[in-house]
Amino acid sequence: MNAIVAPKYGSSEVLRAQVVDRPEPGPGEVLVRVRAAAVCQGDVHLLTGKPYLIRLLGFGIRRPKYRVIGHDLAGEVVALGPDVRTFRIGDEVYGAVVSGAFAEYVRVPVDTLAPKPAGFTFEDAAAVPDGGMTALQGLREVGQLRAGQSVLVNGASGGVGTFAVQIAKALGAEVTAVCSTRHREVVRTLGADWVIDYTTADFARQQHRYDVILDLIGNRSLADCRRVLTPKGVFVSSAGAPGGNWLGPIIWIAKVLLANIFATQTLRPLLMRPRSADLAFLSDLAERGELKPLIEGRYPLSDAAIAVAHVAQGHAQGKTVILV
């Protein structure tokens, strides 16, 4: 099969299109003919091998353990692993894998897979898993967001933030979105009640207080964020907060957990875990017209390196999709 391979750690320039062996599904897995995949920040981290800590977590010390990259995908089931009863050959599905989505075929665990939302194209569906599940878990589970509450999304125009705005509205919250000038109107169309342009205003100096803050950027101190949080509010920090090349966000996560011990507010890190139940929830929102991915760019598989480079720059609007 055709695949995009990372023979070594590095930037998108190390990626190569190669013909590799087609995988076979194991127990609890299905083989999916990939029709579309999406690029996420996790792909960039695994490609560069940074922070270096991830190399010690089973992803390869000197070179990538998983040579075919890519987390998010949508396609058709073409083979079933032993004892799989959840799906049938021919089912149109979407979901997430540790790696391997930038290829014509990938094996996917059934517990990170779900039927493709009715009315969605493969491109639409591939854009959902990482961003959609991160936003959902951050708001509904970690943030405990409820109808009638107010939420601020810092980084509202990115691959997670565009879903967070829509999911928060679907949960009945009042949404304030933080983004740059270029993204203001797009974020409003997603349902944001208020938009703060960080190039002209500082959300940490506003008078309004929020029940939940979903921080997807990590560019403000805990003190700044707590200043605009209600006394019993919840601060949810994405693990994507910046850090050094060795430990990355680990130091920031430790600060959040330590501060939580002494705070009246709740301060929590966000570590997304792919689950088919969450994909099913997102599918329900999509089929009710309450969730639609914002896709900025579409690239053929042969241009996957260009797509990854675009996301690695850090200013992509919504999602970037690869057509397989």
If you had to describe this structure to a student in words, what would you say it looks like?
The protein has 324 residues and is of the alpha/beta class. The protein contains nine helices and 15 strands. It has helices at residues 41-48, 122-126, 129-142, 161-170, 184-189, 222-227, 250-262, 276-287, 304-312; strands spanning 2-5, 16-19, 29-39, 72-80, 92-96, 105-109, 113-115, 150-154, 174-179, 194-197, 210-215, 229-238, 266-270, 295-300, 319-323. The protein is globular, with a radius of gyration of 19 Å. The chain starts with a strand and ends with a strand. 49% of the residues are buried.
Count of runs of 4 or more consecutive helical residues: 9
The amount of helix comes to: 25-40%
Overall geometric form = globular
Query: Average pLDDT, to the nearest integer?
Result: 95
Number of strands: 15
Distance between the termini: 11 Å
Strand content: 25-35%
Radius of gyration: 19 Å
| Low-confidence parts | none
By secondary-structure content and strand pairing, the structural class works out as alpha/beta
Largest sheet: 7 strands, mixed
H/E element order = EEEHEEEEHHEHEHEEHEHEHEHE
Chart the SSEs and their pairings.
Elements: E1 2-5, E2 16-19, E3 29-39, H1 41-48, E4 72-80, E5 92-96, E6 105-109, E7 113-115, H2 122-126, H3 129-142, E8 150-154, H4 161-170, E9 174-179, H5 184-189, E10 194-197, E11 210-215, H6 222-227, E12 229-238, H7 250-262, E13 266-270, H8 276-287, E14 295-300, H9 304-312, E15 319-323
Parallel strand pairs: 8-9, 8-11, 9-10, 11-12, 12-13, 14-15
Antiparallel strand pairs: 1-2, 3-4, 3-6, 3-15, 4-5, 5-7
Helix pairs in contact: 3-4
